[in-house]
Amino acid sequence: MDFTIQNTLIPVHHGYETVDVQIRDRRIAAISPGLEAAGTIVDGRNKLLLPGFVNAHTHSSEMWQRGIIPPVPLELWLAELYDFVPLDPEQIYLSALGTGVETLLSGGTSVVDHLVLIPGQEMETIAATVRAYREIGIRAFVGPLIQDESLSAGIPSGANQHNHEPYVRSTQETLALLQDAVRTFHCPEEGIHLLPAPTGIQLCSDALFAGCIELSDRHNLCRHTHLLETRAQQMLAQEKYGCSGVEHLKRIGFLGSRTSLAHCVWLNDADIGFLAETRSTVVHNPLSNLRLGSGIAPILKYRQAGVNLAFGCDGAASNDSQDLLEAIKMGTILHNVTDSDYHHWITPRQAVEIAALGGATGLGMADQLGSLTVGKQADLVLYDLTNLSLLPRTDPIGLLILGRPIQAVDSIWVRGERIASDGKVTTIDLDQLRRNLFDRSQWTANRQSATVNHLEARYRSVMNLPTQKISF
Amino acid sequence: MDFTIQNTLIPVHHGYETVDVQIRDRRIAAISPGLEAAGTIVDGRNKLLLPGFVNAHTHSSEMWQRGIIPPVPLELWLAELYDFVPLDPEQIYLSALGTGVETLLSGGTSVVDHLVLIPGQEMETIAATVRAYREIGIRAFVGPLIQDESLSAGIPSGANQHNHEPYVRSTQETLALLQDAVRTFHCPEEGIHLLPAPTGIQLCSDALFAGCIELSDRHNLCRHTHLLETRAQQMLAQEKYGCSGVEHLKRIGFLGSRTSLAHCVWLNDADIGFLAETRSTVVHNPLSNLRLGSGIAPILKYRQAGVNLAFGCDGAASNDSQDLLEAIKMGTILHNVTDSDYHHWITPRQAVEIAALGGATGLGMADQLGSLTVGKQADLVLYDLTNLSLLPRTDPIGLLILGRPIQAVDSIWVRGERIASDGKVTTIDLDQLRRNLFDRSQWTANRQSATVNHLEARYRSVMNLPTQKISF
Q: Helix B171-185 to helix B206-219 angle, to the nearest 10 degrees?
């Protein structure tokens, strides 16, 4: 279906203009005042049209554990997460729907789902996720989260030797599974992309990385991984490789213009140079970095070095939401405390560019997405500027990025299809989703994680924390 | 009117219970399962009842400039703010309504409004603000923002001498005005409290502080001020007093258990000791501290020293919202990056205690507000746990504090009066407020502040920033 959005505000160089925007054959066909009406007319008065943003890193099934994991660092948080991970593909389907809805209603039209797989039901997990994203109509980049080492290997050994249990699946089985998933589900022309996405150097062998590189080169797929999220991972990389994790990934050929790297908190100046040189993308997840105490990623340094950036929510158990505008706001203002020269601080317009074009660039789609450009695919979001949270009227983009917009999205198009209007996602039954999420969960507090109890003493010792232990 | 809230979830030691809560004669009269119904029945099923939070520091009229001031540090931000400050009491009324609505719908039942006064219409400014808060029914602590030195005096001199224009009003006139405001508007039994609230050491003489202390002692009023928000203020205090700003305030007798201090970013260990010793309250405003690049207040150190804490949104032009839950979330997770021992990190339940009881304590009302305690005044908020943003069901307080609740407030009582139900504030016409805010404003970008242009070179020089200048 085609659309003409009439009299909408769009940002132009240093200001705003009121224009009509035509969507034809899934693409932005024209942007100009006074266009002839074609297709469905949409009233754009008192509204702001922006390119859709990219939620460039999340883990959808974490939604089942949002709000429940106590304040602990990543290594212990992961232990608890996996103790209670959902094991039913129907749950995976529901949390993908929830992740999609929250991403859309906070300005995101694409989501990168670094998807935790149910052991033994890996293909079913991916199928359930893809089904959810297809139903809802969001553009999805699904990266099955793979590893070939067991969780305890992700904590540095320090002075001691540790033997870790072998992982449940061999490297070759995992790569075969991934190949199978690509063959079955990768369908970019319908908005479903598969990504080889090893979880990270902390839990993956070089053989697994090599297999992912080979697969992504063969099928022209983007690559995705976590990188140096915590100080413990920085220490582990030195133990494992004798060099920084970034340098190692560069050596084995994982970096590149089709590679996006979640977190990148613990990088040195040489590492930053490697990212710029290889045109890799850093996905900044400010909320989980704070929530898990991982640190503040040196985002202003990345900008100065010319490294491409994108924003992500990260999984809902470490955020604990999927509100992309919140992640963008925090990723914008957080860094002001890291550099006293405000000329380096991120402006709201720069934040929009990171969220839209930066995200698209990291997914190899900068020529197709990420800006209001005639010929690009119509992934667009229309914001209602008469919403109380965007009043009084000042600078619309300033209000959107620095404020706290509450249900300010009016309409959404993905691949030219309108999937939300009047502030509601129209492709699924939201009340039914709420009922399903409600019925499959219960209020709780103080659950106990056996694995945290098992790992905590070792973690505290390696990280030089006092050895006394308190229970949660 | 009396109420019985039936079958609502409340937090109890380490868990939750389902109870009935009776509100009688403006107070919490009973909390227990199976109470006899009295007054209006409220269905509390699938809802969480919490004490109302305190938005312990804001400036309501800044709402007119939210989203518009570029990313600059406080000293330049202030210069721009005052170049475009609203000058019509009707605007002040509207922004106080907006501030009240946003505070309420994000869990706040009390607001501390450090109110910027229109020169020459000071009493009209206060009257308009009080009128708004009375209409809406929120409990309000109005601290007319006073100073007796001109804005440029707030920037350190460095090696140079600077002469500053005298302030528009004399110290004695200002104190007389404040006395008049207290006589006219202070009415705690109706939920309107006045606070002597000098803007801060950077713009106030000791005589002004002394007058405020005298007035607050005479009328048993709480006191409020900004304190060491920026590094520039820390430098200025040394120039002005030869000691830290905290030490100076202690010497002149401004600190104490009825004193709340906004920001407290640049304090040393001795300063922290002074705050603990005097039982002063720190109001943490994490969002404006980040937005203005002021720094990260050492909140975990305050907790360890036993300093009482509260959360504030700060004015909407430096936040740029009035969503108290957002400020609480950021004030909770931000500090995890400042201390690697997660045993010190703030838990969601501790955050609730800071937001409710900590706020009440800083306003001298800990015996009246801030907890679900029989006999306390009924300032209560009921959250709808079937809201998508609070699903799936896990730990309700974890979801509320660490998540991103979107319109999750169902009902609000202040002083036992129900002022919101079904997620809507019922005391004012919200559509009319939106129309008024819309009609009195316009979309804009790139306005130019003459005062910023005037002050910037001096600011950059004193703060040792490179001297090249870019325009916004």
A: 20
